[in-house]
Amino acid sequence: MAGCKETLQKNIQDALNVKPTQSQTKSGPGRASMPLPGNTAAFRATLWTNLEKLMNQIYSACGQVQHLQKVLSKKRDPVTHICFIEELQKESEASILQSFWESATGILQREFAFAAENSTFIRQAFEGEYPKLLRLYNDLWKRLQQYSSNIVTTQSSDVIGDHKDKGMFEQIKGSDYSPEKAFKSSIKTFENAYLSRSLSRLFDPINLVFPTGGTTPPSQDEVNGISKTISSELSVASIDHGLSIVVAKNVAKTIQLFAAKSEQLLSTDGEASQVIAPPSVGQQRNIAVVNSLYSFHQLICRLVDGLVNCPEQAVAAIQSALLDIVSLMGNAIKPLLDSVLDSIEAIILTMHSEDFKSSVAVSNTRESPENPCSLYMKELQGFVARVQAEYLAPFQCTDFVVQTVHPIACHAVELFVRHASLIRPLGDGGKMRLAGDFAQMELAVTPLCKRVSDLGKPYKLLRSFRPLLFQTPEHIASSPALGDIIPHSTALHFLFARAPLEMKSPHELAGWSVSRYSQWLDEHTSENERLALLRGTLEAYVQAVRSRQAKEFAPIYPIMLDILQKGSQHI
Fold first, then answer.
1. Radius of gyration, alpha carbons of the chain
2. How far apart are CA 556 and CA 536, in angstroms?
3. Which residue has the higher pLDDT, 23 or 124?
4. For residues 272-295, b (16+ Cβ closer than 10 Å) or e, as one string?
5. Among 157, 272, 327, 542, which one has the highest count of C-beta atoms within 10 angstroms of its own C-beta?
6. 351: nearest Cα among 378, 370, 371
7. DSSP 467
């Protein structure tokens, strides 16, 4: 055993002592051992050849020790008949091969640390080409696995069947000891240095394309270059699952750095949300930043999809960081979209300034009476079309924009139906014009989605509410769309327009404007809360009738009360 250890130590020292290609400069204070100019490639080639030979020597030494352990497990003292291996294991629970492995890993760690400390070039070779060194270790470890099932540590052949074989690669000395970790501990410092360099290689191109004080996002070529750097680091690390996971975490930090640098370029002042004039300089810069983020996101997604045998933990780390990119894209476009929605609501609100009380269909536009269209609807269609052409079309991430704008299109439809139900008074001519507005509303929101039907429930609401304009209160109360598609509160709003003037609408009773009431509805999305307010409105009407000592309620009151009760039960 002692001879094997001495031989192993000498083999390690010989492998790391690459003298033929080193300079002949005498050693002294401040003088590192360096290769001669032009001999760098030859030095490294010799070093790696020596290390491959060293791995074979370690494998051979383990084989010799294993053979020794087998012999000692079978041989017995001719006098006492005690197995030799039993005597040896009185001093230690570990097998001979396990003891040798502990010594071997300790020698490796000391000699590698000594060589790296005394030779700058060896340290640079191990740090710069750490994956190559790790591959040699992994290959040797795989070859050594055969010894796990071949080692016999029992005291005698009589108890072999009752005693499980314990190989050198099983945990010993408690759960904290791992033979594989002990083996790789000799190169841990080189791994840390390599990961530090890897992170620098990942960060450098990003810091280069985002100079201090810069105002423009990186170009497509620059984004491609960053992606190629990430791909290279992941590819080199793919030789080991553990290394892949750690490098993937560095890639995640790189993605987060790209997002942080991009966020600093965004314009967040009032200029970023204006929708009156053509896109401002700040808005154009925001568009360019989002396009850059989208391009980077797509490249990294394709890179991750193309990874082969990559650990799930590594993929998860990168995908988690990519969510930051998507979140930033959404935050960059949010001020603009908020302003667009505010403008849409402001335009829809102007429908209450138009006259819908006439009993004859009259158009305020040049449209024919068969296809009437209100002024506010014309304005809305023009505004949405301009938003799409000037503000949304420049974004290259079409699917992302459609997905982001989807809630705005849905809310625009819901606002339209809400305010249409609040129009009061509403004559027959007003109904005809409002019905035309319902048809035109589909055209108004078309630029904000691929298909209006993609809006889902709001689209069904728009289609289902239009026929109610011409139905009697009784038919409205029995409509199959009531509840599932048309909220009971919306139907009640509409029936207030059919009621006598003494039955005040909810906002009139509260002394609110239509705009203030619409804001309250946005803040109270629960149908239960809305019906509670409407119940209070109807109860106020009942009290008003009784205070006047009137003999009967308006014919529409019991119908509205029935809808209110159905709505409460539906919840």
1. 40
2. 17
3. 124
4. bbbbeeebbebbebbbbbbbbbbb
5. 272
6. 378
7. G
Q: Are 478 and 498 in contact (CB under 8 A)?
A: no
Do residues 272 and 286 touch, judged by C-beta distance below 8 A?
yes
Residues 6+ apart with CB under 8 A from 404: 330, 333, 337
Q: Report yes or no: 82 and 76 within 8 Å, Cβ to Cβ.
A: yes
Rounded distance, CA 483 to CA 492, Å? 12
Name the pLDDT band for 15 (thresholds 50, 70, 90).
confident
Spatial neighbors of 80 by CB under 8 A, at least 6 apart, are: none
| Letter string b/e over residues 398-411, b meaning 16 or more CB atoms within 10 A of that residue's CB | eebbbebbbebbbb
Q: How far is CA 432 from CA 120, 364, 365, 426, in A?
A: 88, 13, 14, 10
Residue 216 DSSP code:
S
Sign of the C-alpha dihedral computed for residues 36, 39, 45 and 49 taken in this order: negative
Q: Could you tell me the pTM of the whole model?
A: 0.81
What lies within 8 Å, CB to CB, of 552 at 6+ separation is none
Question: Rounded to whole angstroms, how far apart are CA atoms 517 and 255?
Answer: 45
The 10s digit of each residue's pLDDT in 351-388 is 999 989 876 655 444 444 445 579 999 999 999 999 99
Residue 27 has phi, psi (to 5 degrees) of: -75, 155
SS3 letters across 447-462: HHCCCHHHHCHHHHHH
Cα gap 211→287, rounded to integer Å: 19
* Strand, helix or coil for residue 76: strand
Let me know the angle formed at the C-alpha of 127 by 121 and 131, rounded to the nearest 5 degrees: 130
Residues 6+ apart with CB under 8 A from 52: 136
Tokens read off for 524: 């109270």
- Which contiguous run of DSSP H or E holds residue 109? helix 96-118
Closest CA to 441 of 422, 466, 423: 466
Query: Can you tell me the distance from the alpha carbon of 560 to that of 301, in angstroms, rounded to the nearest whole number?
Result: 55
What is the number of residues in the chain?
571
333 in Cβ contact with 286 (< 8 Å): yes
> How far is residue 264 CA from its own chain's centroid?
20
**Residues of the chain with pLDDT > 70: what percent?**
84
Q: Which residue has the tokens 């791994």?
A: 191
Q: How far apart are CA 131 and CA 238, in angstroms?
A: 9
- Structure token digits, residue 154: 């029992």
| Spatial contact of 88 and 169, defined as CB atoms under 8 Å apart | no
